[in-house]
């Protein structure tokens, strides 16, 4: 096969990831309360919790959340010192049950006088129905510093139907224009994309512009919650737009956070029978990243091809990274021993260079994508790659790559030659072959300074 | 048909032009059209939605797609492209084709010109495209004045966006074949603007006779003349001549999935919805930058060779120098000079901004890289670069060796007291003592070398976060940003209007510079540069 240089299984451990948030380590800590997976079967062993909350409180708080998915730290935004947390829905039920421990956990995140938003990815009506079935939402009376806002995203069951309809529309190349547009519209796929990006922008805006911490949850906390939390980080954090940062993001927010890849990425759009648990949630995430990518083609270190490869591996792969539903299952099946990690393969130089974006210029700022319908497009490179020949686009990217490479080459050549010239001049002066420049007399040094000023003025623009 | 033997008649229906105007008219004109009769009224109502598509304040995705479908615009585009592809395929297979519609100046013009673009790479160049428009549209009498409704006397039912449709078909083809066209989207948008603007005489009149009668060639300017002056704005950086040979005939994909919504035309001035980073313009700038650096490399190589010859080095040594090898002697020369002038206190040399290869290509804050070969600062950065490039300086950095016999110390201390190179530039006026005639080649002075190197910026400023020119004119997505080739800053088209040859280039072709740099280069008395 190939030699594993950097072991992908160990590349993104919780400890190394926590070091990225070193500014918040005064208030947050790693907790191993879940080390037997008894508190929450779908969470990893190590989670980030507030320092002021003890493990016992967490154990009790976990019983108040669906599937035991209590609120944990997802991302810390340095510029505004705000945090992004995610969880699942609280089990307040029709009687409005309370849980002191959960309230303590959530309220201790912020200092006095600070505000927070709880972003619920369900519409208000849907949340109320969930409440009648035992789930629900946080009542503002019990969480006084938090304001609840609803940023509705469709349920994951509708994602699957949308994908099937859209792929069907894409494959029908002999249809008329009207039929194509109406099928695309009725699939609602682009509507989902728009909703997800909008919600993520709202979260990002709250954290960056309004300087407010955010807690995101849906119902189960494994689908729309992760979509919003990971996409917000793409918007806010320039590190997530680099290759290693993006891989770390996927590891942290999807794989370790317990997104059930095995059940969700079972068969995709061509399945004959539809399974209830199946849903292209991760594909939607990759699509949303692509939408932002094509609006900011110079701000991402990786190319479109990288995203395409990740999508393919999430469904069918020779590597073990996307296997199983959560960390507990992976440990049980000994995935790390029996398979190779995808990151071990991808991060090798000769493989990675195919996935680099030639237009990349590091962009430390927060990027705000547009969600106007005119800005969002069908991802031709993925959904239509069987229908439309992608060779001209590949050629265009090769050309762009060549232009940039040549430019870099010339720069380094110029620098080398300039250095060479400098050293030769020194040599020439020392050998007396070229006389050193004339020493200006003191009287005319005034003029010299004036003359000096004008070239410098331009230079310091 | 019986009279036309050996011919096959293929009727292809393209919708009649009035309908098209209804659906399109609202995109450009804001006031609703009064329908001629009841049938038209229904059509009008449906298609008025099209304008709303482009103007919607907070549309949902489905709203947008619905109205796009309802307008039927893309359907027409698809039909025109389909027909042209059919014609192109027939010709490419060896069958001659005669195309006609009812009048022969609308749909015929569209399909024939598109087929020409598909078949002949010449029509995909700027000059060829202009020739095509002259031939198929202006020459064959497309009624521009009537179709664009330029005069009040024109009947409403004569107006129709036929040429706009043609331009959109060309744009759709450009999306499918990004490397096949010499021109870019801005080219098409500019032509489209001037069909309606009447600023140029090219599109005035309904036929050639009209243009002769109106004596347009005497009384107006031609659009093509204006566009040739600004041709750098219209070039596609991805265009490859080899493409013409490899793929002379390009037939676009007929499936509806291949067509896109032309944001640049219908939402042009809403900058928020366009991609925030323009890949084409950045690549264009990178290409220009490479041209500048290429020329500069040639000059540097010439200078290196000159000095080597003065020093009497062998051909082999010269070649090695050109490859960038720095000999240990010259490094030690640096070191001793450095140690020698450590006693001189007045070291206020300008710290140069050597381009650090590790930062992004266009991200330099200070654009001018001066080779301050004489100041202490430059030695440090050179040494650092050497170190970072892995050159084995290692222990020799600490090697102390005094070298006073060659007058080296004196030279370096002189220069460091002078405070850096800038004063030297200022003192160029007096060339006494600094000039040595070298055998067979031109006069070489340190001042001249420094002046030459100063005139070429190694790094050009990034376009990112540049929202207006220094003259305060704003940049939107479709306005091209230019770089000054001397200082590397970003300017608008008016501020970059001057061109001048730069001493730092070997070939001395005039290149665009900003006004301050223009004045500076004109004033600088470089001996090789004749003051004109």
UniProtKB/TrEMBL annotation, chain A:
It comes from Elysia marginata. PANTHER family: LD06050P, MYOTUBULARIN-RELATED. Coiled coil: none annotated. CDD domains: PTP-MTMR9 (cd14536). Residues 8-383 form the Myotubularin phosphatase domain. It holds the Pfam family Myotub-related. GO terms for cellular component: cytoplasm. One of its GO terms (molecular function) is protein phosphatase binding. This is Myotubularin-related protein 9. One of its GO terms (biological process) is phosphatidylinositol dephosphorylation. Belongs to the protein-tyrosine phosphatase family. Non-receptor class myotubularin subfamily. It comes from the Eukaryota.
Automatic annotation (TrEMBL), chain B:
GO terms for cellular component: cytoplasm; membrane. The active site is at 101 (phosphocysteine intermediate). Substrate binds at residues 101-107. Residues 1-266 form the Myotubularin phosphatase domain. GO terms for biological process: phosphatidylinositol dephosphorylation. Keywords: Hydrolase, Lipid metabolism, Membrane, Metal-binding, Zinc, Zinc-finger. CDD domains: FYVE_MTMR_unchar (cd15738). The keyword Methyltransferase does not apply. It is an enzyme of class 3 (hydrolase). One of its GO terms (molecular function) is phosphatidylinositol-3-phosphate phosphatase activity. Its EC number is 3.1.3.95. SMART domains: FYVE, PTPc_motif. Residues 471-522 form the FYVE-type domain. It is found in: Membrane. Pfam families: FYVE, Myotub-related. Belongs to the protein-tyrosine phosphatase family. Non-receptor class myotubularin subfamily. This is phosphatidylinositol-3,5-bisphosphate 3-phosphatase. The lineage of its organism: Eukaryota, Metazoa, Spiralia, Lophotrochozoa, Mollusca.
């Amino acid at each position: 096969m190939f030699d594993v240089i950097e072991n992908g299984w160990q590349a993104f451990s919780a400890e190394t990831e926590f070091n990225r948030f070193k500014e918040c380590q005064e208030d947050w800590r790693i907790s191993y309360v879940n080390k037997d997976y008894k508190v929450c079967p779908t969470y990893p062993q190590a989670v980030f919790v507030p320092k002021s909350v003890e493990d016992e409180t967490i154990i009790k708080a976990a019983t108040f959340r669906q599937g035991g998915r209590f609120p944990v730290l997802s991302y810390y935004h340095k510029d505004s010192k705000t945090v992004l947390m995610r969880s699942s829905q609280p089990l307040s039920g029709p009687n409005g049950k309370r849980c002191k421990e959960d309230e303590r956990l959530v309220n201790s995140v912020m200092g006095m006088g600070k505000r927070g938003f709880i972003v619920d990815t369900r519409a208000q009506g849907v949340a109320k129905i969930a409440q009648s079935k035992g789930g629900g939402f946080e009542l503002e009376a019990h969480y006084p510093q938090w304001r609840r806002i609803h940023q509705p995203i469709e349920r994951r069951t509708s994602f699957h139907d949308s994908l099937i309809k859209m792929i069907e529309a894409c494959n029908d190349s002999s249809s008329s224009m009207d039929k194509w547009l109406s099928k695309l519209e009725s699939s609602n796929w682009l509507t989902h994309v728009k909703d997800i990006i909008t919600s993520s922008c709202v979260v990002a805006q709250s954290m960056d512009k309004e300087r407010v911490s955010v807690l995101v949850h849906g119902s189960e906390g494994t689908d729309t919650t992760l979509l919003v939390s990971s996409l917000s980080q793409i918007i806010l954090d320039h590190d997530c737009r680099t290759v290693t940062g993006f891989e770390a993001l996927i590891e942290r927010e999807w794989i370790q956070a317990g997104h059930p890849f095995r059940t969700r990425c079972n068969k995709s759009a061509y399945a004959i029978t539809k399974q209830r648990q199946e849903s292209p949630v991760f594909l939607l995430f990759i699509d949303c990243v692509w939408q932002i990518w094509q609006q900011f083609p110079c701000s991402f270190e990786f190319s479109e091809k990288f995203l395409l490869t990740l999508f393919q591996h999430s469904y069918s792969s020779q590597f073990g990274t996307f296997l199983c539903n959560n960390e507990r299952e992976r440990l049980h099946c000994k995935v790390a021993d029996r398979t190779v990690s995808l990151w071990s393969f991808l991060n090798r130089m000769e493989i990675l260079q195919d996935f680099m974006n030639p237009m990349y210029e590091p962009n430390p700022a927060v990027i705000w994508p547009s969600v106007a319908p005119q800005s969002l497009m069908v991802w031709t490179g993925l959904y239509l790659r069987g229908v439309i020949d992608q060779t001209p686009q590949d050629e265009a990217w090769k050309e762009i790559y060549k232009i940039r490479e040549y430019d870099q080459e010339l720069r380094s050549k110029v620098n080398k030659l300039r250095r060479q010239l400098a050293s030769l001049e020194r040599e020439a002066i020392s050998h007396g072959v070229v006389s050193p420049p004339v020493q200006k007399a003191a009287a005319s040094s005034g003029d010299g300074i004036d003359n000096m000023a004008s070239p410098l003025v331009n230079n310091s623009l | 048909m019986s009279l036309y033997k050996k011919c096959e008649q293929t009727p292809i229906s393209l919708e009649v032009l009035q309908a098209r105007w209804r659906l399109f008219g609202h995109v450009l004109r804001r006031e609703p059209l009064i329908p001629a009769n009841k049938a038209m009224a229904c059509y009008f109502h449906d298609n008025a939605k099209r304008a709303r598509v482009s103007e919607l304040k907070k549309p949902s995705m489905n709203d947008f797609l619905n109205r796009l479908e309802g307008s039927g615009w893309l359907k027409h585009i698809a039909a025109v492209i389909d027909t042209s592809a059919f014609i192109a395929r027939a010709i490419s297979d060896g069958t001659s084709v005669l195309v006609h519609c009812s009048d022969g100046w609308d749909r015929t013009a569209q399909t024939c010109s598109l087929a020409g673009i598909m078949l002949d790479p010449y029509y995909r160049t700027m000059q060829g495209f202009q020739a095509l428009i002259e031939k198929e549209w202006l020459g064959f009498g497309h009624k521009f004045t009537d179709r664009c409704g330029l005069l009040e006397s024109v009947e409403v039912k004569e107006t129709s966006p036929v040429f706009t449709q043609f331009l959109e078909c060309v744009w759709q083809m450009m999306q499918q074949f990004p490397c096949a066209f010499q021109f870019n989207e801005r080219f098409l948008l500019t032509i489209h603007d001037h069909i309606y603007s009447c600023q140029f005489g090219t599109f005035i009149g309904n036929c050639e006779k009209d243009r002769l009668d109106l004596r347009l060639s005497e009384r107006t300017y031609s659009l093509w003349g204006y566009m040739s002056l600004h041709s750098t704005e219209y070039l596609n950086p991805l265009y490859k001549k080899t493409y013409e040979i490899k793929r002379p005939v390009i037939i676009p994909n007929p499936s509806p999935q291949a067509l896109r919504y032309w944001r640049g035309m219908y939402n042009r001035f809403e900058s928020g919805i366009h991609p925030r980073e323009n890949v084409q313009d950045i690549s264009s700038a990178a290409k220009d930058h490479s041209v500048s650096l290429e020329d500069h490399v040639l000059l540097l190589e010439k200078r290196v060779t000159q000095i080597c010859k003065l020093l009497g080095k062998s051909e082999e040594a010269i070649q090695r120098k050109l490859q960038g090898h720095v000999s240990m002697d010259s490094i030690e020369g640096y070191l001793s000079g450095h140690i020698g002038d450590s006693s001189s206190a007045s070291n206020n040399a300008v710290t140069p901004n050597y381009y650090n290869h590790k930062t992004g290509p266009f991200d330099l804050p200070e654009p001018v890289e001066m080779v301050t070969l004489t100041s202490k600062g430059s030695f440090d950065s050179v040494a650092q670069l050497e170190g970072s490039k892995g050159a084995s300086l290692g222990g020799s950095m600490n090697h102390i060796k005094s070298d006073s016999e060659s007058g080296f110390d004196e030279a370096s201390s002189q220069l460091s007291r002078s405070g850096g190179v800038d004063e030297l530039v200022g003192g160029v006026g007096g060339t006494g003592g600094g000039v040595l005639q070298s055998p067979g080649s031109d006069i070489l002075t340190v001042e001249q070398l420094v002046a030459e190197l100063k005139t070429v910026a190694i790094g050009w400023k990034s376009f990112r976060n540049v929202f207006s020119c220094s003259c305060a004119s704003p940049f939107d997505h479709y306005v091209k940003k230019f770089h000054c080739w001397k200082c590397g800053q970003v300017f608008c088209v008016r501020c970059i209007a001057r061109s001048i040859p730069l001493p730092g280039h070997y070939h001395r072709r005039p290149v665009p510079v900003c006004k301050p740099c223009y004045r500076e280069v004109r004033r600088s008395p470089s001996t090789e540069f004749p003051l004109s």
